[in-house]
Amino acid sequence: MGLSAAQARLLTITARKSDCEFKSMGFSHEKIALSREMTDISNEYQNSLNLTKMVYDFYGNGDKSTPLSYNLLMTPSQLNGYMPMLTTDSSGKVVLDSKYAKAAAAAGIPKEGLNSLPSEDVRNKFLMQLAEVGYITTEEAESYCKVQYSPDMGLGTTDLVTTNTKDVGWDEFLQMFDDINFSFDMSGSEFAGEDAESSMVVNGTDKGNLHNWAESNKNTITMEELLTGNYSIFGGDKDHDGNYADFKNLATNISKIGAWEDMFAAFRQVLGGSSINNQALDYAEAKIRSMLYFEGIDYTTYDGNIMTGSMELPDSIDDSMIACDDWGFYMSHQKSRKRAKYHNVADRLRPELDKYIGYVGMDYIRQGERDQYDGVGISISNIARAFLTYFVQFIDGFDSPYKMTHDQGLDARAPRNRKEEYTITGEERSIFNNNLIDPTKAKDYKFTVTTDTGINTNQALMSGFYDALFNQICLRGWVENDNINDNNYLQETYKNGMLFLTTCAEDGFYYQENCGTNTYIKEVADDEAIARAEAKYNTQKQKLNQKEEIIDMKMKNLDTEISSLTTEYDTVKSLITKNIERGFKRYDA
Predict the structure, then answer these.
(1) CB neighbours (10 Å) of residue 324?
(2) Which of 225, 212, 120, 178 is nearest to 463 (CA)?
(3) Backbone φ, ψ for residue 57 (5° rounding)
(4) Cβ atoms within 10 A of the Cβ of 189, count?
């Protein structure tokens, strides 16, 4: 080989050797990168060995198959005891997903909550909105609406409602009293004797001594007769010898007749059961008791000045005294300067009793002597209708057309001075009781009564669940966060304290807690996640090992080639050296 050719060959070998060495260095860097990647996946795998998850172990047998989820907490089932397990933020507001939030907003529940619970109508609207967003079916929502709303659910009680309600008209309403005894127990009254100056007045007609009438009629009046007719009780002076029975004595005897308590019990038996009805019954009974027993009434004069704050009945009634508590007792005064016959004034009182609500007293005046009362009476029918009117007024609101009010005909109750011959016109009389509810004026009115028909346990359980949820949303307020439907997100917020679990305790109230304190929720090793991490680690490790083997093989080939090139390089270089030496020797010779 010539010198020039050898030198060209040497340069080629040097270039090839440098290229192989550069490639080998690149493969070395790749191996270093694979080593770092291997370290990362090893660390990830080691960390995965500590992975945990939250499970719901309802039976306490160590079951890890039921992950903690928003759907499990907020859907009625045996697992949550048919009581919602709420997710709440640090301020105590209930965290709702988009569907629940839409239903709450559509039902008119503000995000900041309410200071009190709304009506059953709002609860029913909330249930129907749950059907609208697809949480329950329309048929389910309608069936839950028929179960009476429980405003105490989750607020001191977990007792399930097991009664249903239905609306009934007057005919069916009256039939519900058929098996209820309504009797006159006169054992506590002085009207019990056969000679007592008392009588039963029916539709304005005197039916004779009250005791005798009660005996002949077996002490009973049906509720239908009472509400549709005009039954009154009258009591007069004891004798003709000047021993007059004062207003207090006569009214007290009327109040002691046991019919009143039977009346209260009868109304409660038919209308009681639901929370709202019970409240309305309490209200109506309190109002009627104030009439019958003068509980809590302040007596005022005609011009509005307080006469006495005593709860005791007065012995006599001033000409200008009225009762200020809605419809209290009323007086019909018959003034005369001439001595009246004993039965004259009393006979005039009896037919007038059904025109008033409450006690009615009538007197006569004798020249130079104080007023005396000939008699006191009361309409039992008007008291029963007044009770029912107060009940309806509470249920329907105080703008109900059937109501008790004291702003009509107030001036017609008492004469302005003693000298007037005071009479009340028919028109004035009518205003005292024309707003009382009865079958004639309100024949289309519907009463909501409770019944056990058409209800099953599951229906009550489901309704109770949504009542508790509704109550908590109303009182606590709510926020929307649809991410809580992601189990991992929900569990992580519980773990890091961003959100809290709020559950119903044994006392029936909801309390916020940490998940770690709940006996059903456990944080356990996430075996599935660990297995997935291990499989991922093994797969990635295998891939890295394969890549490393390929790189090693390529580097080995490069080393072989570099070694070969080095040998060739040395040979060519030696050849060039010899050629140069040979040339110098030739010219020296």
Answers:
(1) 14
(2) 120
(3) -100, 80
(4) 22
Cα separation, 147 vs 164, whole angstroms: 5
Give strand ranges (E) for 258-333. 299-300, 306-308, 322-323, 330-331
Please check the confidence at residue 413 and state whether its pLDDT lies above 50: no
The one-letter amino acid code at 208 reads G
User: What's the token pair of residue 220?
Assistant: 């009973």
Cα–Cα distances (Å) from 393 to 119, 173, 365, in that order, read: 15, 17, 40
Of 11-25, 234-248, 288-302, 378-392, which has the strongest mean pLDDT?
378-392
Residue with the bigger pLDDT between 230 and 455: it is: 230
Report the range of poorest mean pLDDT among 87-91, 138-142, 222-226, 469-473.
222-226
Q: What pLDDT is recorded for position 103?
A: 95
φ, ψ for residue 504 (rounded to 5)?
-85, 125
Domain boundaries, the chain: 3-51+528-588, 69-162+477-522, 171-443
Pairing, β 521-525 against β 52-56: antiparallel
What the block records as the tokens of 314 is 């007065």
Cα(408)–Cα(429) distance, integer angstroms: 11
Q: Indicate the average pLDDT of the chain.
A: 75
Rounded CA-CA distance 134/129 in Å is 9
Dihedral sign from CA coordinates of 491, 495, 496, 501: positive
Residue 351: what residue type? P
Per-residue pLDDT reduced to its tens digit, 328-349:
444 444 443 333 343 455 666 7
If we measure between CA atoms, which residue out of 125, 171, 97 comes closest to residue 442?
Answer: 171
Higher-confidence residue: 208 or 172?
172
Whether pLDDT at 327 is above 50: no
**Residue 476 is which amino acid?**
R
Neighbours of 573 (CB within 10 A): 16
In whole angstroms, what is the distance from residue 259 CA to residue 265 CA? 10
Of the two residues 239 and 584, the one the predictor is more confident about is 584
Q: How far apart, in whole angstroms, are the C-alpha atoms of residue 126 and residue 505?
A: 25
**476 vs 93: CA distance, rounded Å:** 5
pLDDT of residue 330: 44
SS3 per-residue string spanning 301-321:
CCCCCEEECCCCCCCCCCCCC
Classify residue 219 as left (phi > 0), alpha (psi -120 to 50) or beta.
left
Q: Are 56 and 524 in contact (CB under 8 A)?
A: no
